[in-house]
Amino acid sequence: MVIRRGVRSVLVTLALYLVSGAVVSYFLFHAQHGARGLEARDTLQGTLRGMEAELAALTTERKSWEQRLSLVRDEAVDRDLLEEMARNTLGRVHKNDVILMGR
């Protein structure tokens, strides 16, 4: 009987270690590969870097458009820009303009 109790206590201890090891392994695996794990974080950070670069490009483009629009406002119309826009819109050229035709 003493041997059975000793074997039983060893088996119970071993089973507890195996179960707790399996639980820890489960959580560690999902911490690395899960939907909110480390790999998903790296993917999201890469996407965030791409979006930040796109935002910076769009911001500079917006500033250039705002600068061009400020030249056409009612307060101070830039005559050269107005003439360029009118020529592009109407498809007209001035008699002194030189036109280069490409292939």
Mind telling me the C-alpha Rg? 36 Å
Shape: rod-shaped
Low-confidence parts, pLDDT < 50 over ≥5 residues? none
The sequence of SSEs as H and E is: HHH
The major beta sheet can be summarized as: none
Helix content: over 70%
End-to-end Cα distance, whole Å, is 102 Å
Average pLDDT metric? 87
Multimerization status? single chain
Helix segment tally: 3
Q: Any overview of this molecule?
A:
With 103 residues, the protein is mainly α. Helices cover 77% and strands 0% of the residues. It is built from three helices and no strands. It has helices at residues 2-33, 38-72, 79-90. The longest helix has 35 residues, at 38-72. The mean pLDDT is 87.
Which labels suit this protein?
single chain, 103 residues, mainly alpha, rod-shaped
List the helices and strands and how they pair.
Blueprint: H1 2-33, H2 38-72, H3 79-90
Please summarize what this structure is:
The protein has 103 residues and is an all-alpha fold. It is built from 3 helices and no strands.
